[in-house]
């Protein structure tokens, strides 16, 4: 596997804003997030407080509002 890492270019980790934009683009294209933990992680890294029992739709709407600013 070491040879593979030398061949492929190293990518920088995505920023929370870019992860949020990618999530919203996928949802707008008709995709559904399958893991609520990922959505919550993106929201928390954007500075939003998310309750463990918060509906995913509400969290996505809050992410959308945060990115729109």
Explain what you see:
This protein is mainly alpha-helical. The protein has one domain. Helices cover about 60% and strands about 0% of the residues. It contains four helices and no strands. The protein has helices at about 1-5, 15-30, 35-45, 55-69. Helix 2 (about 15-30) packs across helix 3 (about 35-45). The longest helix has 13 residues, at about 15-30.
What is the residue-averaged pLDDT? Answer: 92
According to DSSP, the number of beta strands is 0
* Distance N to C terminus: 42 Å
Q: Give a quick account of the main beta sheet: strands, pairing sense, barrel closure.
A: none
**Shape summary:** elongated
Sketch the topology as an H/E string, one letter per element: HHHH
SS-derived structural category: mainly alpha
Residues in helix, %: 55-70%
Low-confidence stretches: none
| Rg (CA only) | 15 Å
Assembly type of the chains comes to single chain
Total number of domains: 1
The fraction of residues in strands falls at under 5%
Number of helical elements = 4
């Amino acid at each position: 596997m070491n040879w593979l890492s030398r061949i492929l270019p190293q990518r920088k980790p995505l920023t929370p804003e870019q992860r949020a934009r990618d999530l919203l683009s996928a949802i707008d294209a008709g995709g559904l997030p399958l893991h609520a933990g990922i959505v919550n992680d993106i929201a928390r890294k954007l500075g939003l407080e998310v309750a463990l029992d918060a509906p995913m739709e509400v969290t996505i709407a809050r992410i959308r509002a945060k990115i729109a600013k």
